[in-house]
Each structure stands twice: as C-alpha cells, then as structure tokens.
Specification:
- There is one protein chain.
- This protein has eleven helices and twelve strands.
- With 330 residues, it is an alpha/beta fold.
- It has one domain: Rossmann fold, CATH 3.40.50.300.
- Helix 3 packs parallel to helix 5 and helix 5 runs parallel beside helix 6.
C-alpha cells in the first residue's frame, strides 16, 4: 500500500452518563469508540461494517470532528485534525465532507438545489463567484442529474435523486475525504446499486478517499477495497474485501459473512451458518477481556481476561483475537 493519506491512531469517543435532577453525578461511561487504529491510502475505499450500535456512525463523525474525540489522533494529509483550533478546523473542513444516511433529512427543504450546492462553495471560497453557476451545472451532470433541475426544491425529487444531490453537495468543495454513513439504507433496493456505482466511479475519477459505513456486507463487498469489521467500539478485523469474504478470520466476522444470502439455492442449502447467541452487550457495561467472548463459540478462559490487540495475521490482514491462528488453522 502507498503512504497513508488518512491515519487514525488510538481514537476514542466516550460519553459520560449522569444521573440526578439538581446534583448531577456520573454513574458510568459509554465507550462508543474505544481505541480504533487504521490507515487509508489516497483514493482507497474502506467499508466499515458491524451491527447497529457498534459505534460506526460515531467513528465517522469523530473522524470529521463533528464529535470531539476523547483521545487519539486523526491525521489527514499530514494534518492532525484533532489538534486544530476552531478557526483552523473550519478552514480545513473543505478537505473532508460527509454524506448522511437520510436524504429526506439532510437537505434543507427551504433551499433550492442551486442554493444548497452554491452555499458550500461560497462558505469555503473554493470557487470564484463568476464560476459558481457553471460549477453547479457540472456537479449535477457528474452525479447523473440534469442541470435544469437546479431551481427545484428537495421535496420535488425521489429518494435516490435526493441522495445524488447530497453527493453533489459533498463534492462541491472538492474534498479529499468523504465519510458516507449508510448512504443507501433509506433507498429502494433498485436504487441502491446506482448510488453505490456512482460513489465508486467518483472515487476513481477524483481520487477520493472514502469510508463507506454500512451494516450490509453484500453492499460493502461491492464497493470496498478493504473492509474493517467493528464490534462494540473496536475494530476486530481489517483486510482486503475479497479475502474477508472468502476467509474471515475473526469469529464475529465469520458470523456476519455466514448471514449474507447466496443467490444459488443449492449452495445456500449446503453452507454452514454461524448463529450468534445472546444480544450485543451494552457499551455502558462491556464484558471483561474480549468484548465478543460471551457470544463466541471459540471462547476460552483467557478470552475473558485479556483485551486482544489488533495484530498482523498476514501481510494484508489484521485481526483482534488471541485464538485467531488456532481457529483458522483447524
């Protein structure tokens, strides 16, 4: 892999839990993101997957400094975003943008498409005023919409068209990094593939570094260069997308992959499903040691004692499981 363009080191986002109407006292801490480390090359697409509540969206927002990190660093193109003051952070925001999950909520209903796209250009002074009209028209064409729609309002578009507009808005300031938080989960299945293909195409053409957050592994497999699997605030496995699907290393990843439907009915009947027992533990009161061990069929006594670090399994893959080699050599 080429030199890291985005480097995340020991990133933590903890939220205090308090009780009391008059005298507030702290009764615990929700560790939404708890020591995440990974890096991305320029133009790489990372798929971030995991169950609902595992901290995916919080991680995305923390990377973009929409939520201040409790600890750790976020280095983008050599600049530590977590260490910037408010003024410098605002000046840097053109370099990183977000595509939100719900296209019905992420666009201002009182603004036309033109105003929504032009607002970002004016705020960051990236495009001369005389060129804004031309730039807005070019963005509309880039995301597959006609420029003649720029005077319309969000309610006049379908969900898929709104998400294309949201993508155009994210691209308006020519960012280097985009976090896409479940960008297709609110759309019809027939539209999802169009949006996924559009994001992949734009990433290739514009050398965009993309973090694609989703709970749907089949979607992530289609678009990602690498996949990171998250469980209860931690990354438990990272590797090339094809390898993660063909030979998952972590027991949690094995369960996720086994739940992805196979189009071939005969193969679907023959394969062995990995069924997880119990519910995901609360981030307010996580288990000791490996947070996955109460649901893991491979768990041993030591799994409840030591928190596994994300370690290199082979040159392209890392996994956080003290029994990974034993399990995958059996």
């Amino acid at each position: 892999m080429s030199e890291a363009f985005l480097q995340i080191e020991n990133l933590k986002t903890h939220f205090p839990v308090e009780r009391g109407m008059i005298i507030r006292r702290r009764i615990g801490t929700v560790k939404a993101v708890d020591g995440v480390t990974f890096s991305l090359a320029r133009g790489e697409i990372l798929g971030l997957v995991g169950e609902s509540g595992c901290g995916k969206s919080t991680l995305g927002r923390t990377i973009l400094q929409l939520i201040p990190p409790t600890e750790g660093t976020v280095v983008l193109a050599g600049k530590n975003l977590a260490g910037l003051n408010k003024h410098d952070l605002r000046e840097s925001r053109a370099d990183f943008q977000m595509i939100f999950q719900d296209p019905y909520a992420s666009l201002n209903p009182r603004m036309t498409v033109f105003d929504a796209l032009a607002e970002a250009m004016r705020a960051h002074r990236k495009i001369p005023a005389a060129e804004i009209n031309e730039r807005v028209a070019a963005l509309m064409q880039k995301v597959g919409l006609s420029p003649r729609f720029v005077k319309k309002y969000p309610h006049e578009f379908s969900g898929g068209q709104r998400q294309r507009i949201a993508i155009a808005r994210a691209l308006a300031v020519e960012p280097k990094l985009i976090i896409a938080d479940e960008p297709v989960s609110a759309l019809d299945v027939s539209i999802q593939a169009q949006i996924i293909n559009l994001l992949a195409k734009l990433s290739r053409e514009m050398q965009l570094t993309l973090v694609f957050i989703s709970h749907d592994l089949s979607v992530v497999k289609h678009i990602s260069d690498r996949i990171a699997v998250m469980y209860l605030g931690r990354i438990v496995e990272i590797g090339p997308a094809a390898q993660v699907f063909e030979q998952p290393l972590h027991p949690y990843t094995k369960a996720l992959v086994s739940a992805v439907p196979i189009p071939d009915p005969e193969r679907e009947k023959q394969r062995q499903r990995v069924i997880l027992t119990g519910d995901p533990p609360s981030p307010l009161d996580p288990p000791s040691g490996c947070s996955f061990h109460p649901r893991c069929s491979y768990a041993a006594t030591e799994c409840s004692r030591a928190v596994p670090a994300l370690e290199i399994f082979d040159p392209a893959r890392t996994v956080a499981c003290i029994r990974a080699r034993e399990i995958n050599q059996a």
